[in-house]
Write a sequence for this structure.
């Protein structure tokens, strides 16, 4: 949250120190299964992480929800891919069905369309009312053909169609405001193309980076209003992360220094910070991109610029990022050689310190209320492009968390 807008300060109050430093938090794993966990998603306010671990019997996959207060808790579904703005709803899958999980109701399967054999949900909007993913239909030889969908409570699962000549589609992400869906569409040859879908414009191909004889691109994430889309595209030398905008089209983000390939998996609400991974010979490293610095190893940035000591850890992938860009989640190889989920807070800002005076008190609530009443984008705490009651809840959570 920017501190460029002055807020009225009314008297003194008991305060909380607001200096905040970067933190790296290993998330551990679920009890009773394989020692392995993956953080797939983070809420817009950066307070809730969703992911996948293992439980008995047979080390089955299981979804988890993590917060600093509650730690890692088991969810009654097998996968989690998507969290709402404040962590009250999570999308995922249970066996072969897409699922919506809520704190009040637990896991509820989303009924499959007639003829569909299976499905999964991959992401959800910031307010939790829209979910995207895919359902799959068998053909006469039992080959499954996935079809991208968007779901809401009113219409249920709505398939999104395909690009001309294609017959397989998967939706990988949705903008925070729920208006733009991204994914890929492909045919039975080698062509695969990233798409951007809206209810008013349908499915639109985003093209490819130049140089590849067999064209292939996939879109994985979008900013708050879907005007910036990120993913990966094949080139003449391999695969490279891309960032797409209406004005500039698809542009390569390059690789981290010394690497050969890369992929972009998520972006913040403004679309100016992109996370993913970069690949060298036999290695994968979590990456972070900004226009000023290009793509770099996230681990190098954390150690050299934020002073973190990550001895024995190898950050493999950065899978998601919060709306303000200060919280990132992903997977790593821990000092014992096991795959483990993690969350890092960069600590460059304190969202609850609305008036920027270095302390948290009731004047920050007055500041936030003023911004909200004025319709300022500064009050969009959850980063979904709209001002709603969820922004008050987001701000309250940030205030209660404090600024360590």
């Amino acid at each position: 949250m920017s501190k460029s807008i002055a807020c009225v300060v009314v008297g003194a109050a008991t305060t909380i120190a607001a200096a905040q430093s970067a933190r790296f938090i290993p998330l551990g794993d679920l009890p009773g299964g394989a020692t392995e966990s993956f953080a797939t998603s983070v809420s817009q306010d950066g307070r809730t992480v969703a992911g996948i671990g293992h439980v008995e019997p047979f080390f089955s996959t299981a979804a988890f929800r993590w917060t600093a207060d509650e730690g890692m808790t088991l969810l009654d579904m097998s996968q989690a891919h998507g969290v709402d703005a404040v962590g009250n709803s999570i999308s995922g899958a249970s066996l072969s069905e897409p699922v919506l999980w809520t704190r009040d109701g637990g896991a509820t399967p989303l009924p499959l369309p007639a003829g569909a054999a299976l499905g999964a949900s991959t992401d959800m909007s910031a307010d939790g009312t829209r979910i995207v993913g895919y359902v799959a239909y068998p053909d006469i030889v039992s080959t499954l053909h996935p079809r991208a969908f968007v779901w809401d409570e009113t219409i249920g699962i709505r398939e999104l169609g395909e690009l001309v000549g294609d017959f397989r589609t998967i939706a990988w992400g949705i903008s925070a405001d729920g208006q733009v869906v991204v994914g890929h569409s492909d045919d039975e040859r080698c062509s695969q193309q990233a798409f951007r879908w809206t209810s008013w414009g349908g499915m639109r191909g985003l093209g490819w980076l130049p140089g590849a004889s067999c064209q292939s691109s996939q879109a994985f994430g979008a900013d708050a209003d879907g005007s910036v889309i990120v993913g990966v595209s094949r080139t003449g030398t391999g695969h490279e992360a891309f960032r797409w905008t209406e004005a500039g089209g698809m542009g390569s983000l390059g690789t981290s220094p010394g690497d050969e390939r890369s992929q972009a998996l998520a972006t913040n609400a403004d679309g100016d910070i992109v996370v993913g991974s970069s690949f060298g010979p036999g290695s994968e490293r979590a990456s972070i991109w900004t226009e000023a610095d290009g793509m770099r190893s996230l681990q190098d940035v954390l150690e050299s610029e934020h002073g973190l000591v990550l001895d024995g850890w190898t950050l493999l992938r950065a899978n998601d990022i919060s709306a303000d860009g200060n919280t990132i989640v992903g997977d790593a190889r821990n000092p014992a050689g096991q795959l483990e989920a993690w969350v890092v807070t960069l600590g460059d800002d304190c969202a609850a310190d609305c008036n920027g005076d270095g302390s948290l008190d009731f004047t920050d609530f007055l500041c936030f209320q003023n911004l909200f009443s004025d319709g300022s984008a500064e009050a969009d705490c959850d980063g979904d492009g709209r001002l709603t009651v969820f922004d008050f809840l987001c701000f309250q959570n940030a205030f209660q968390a404090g600024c360590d």
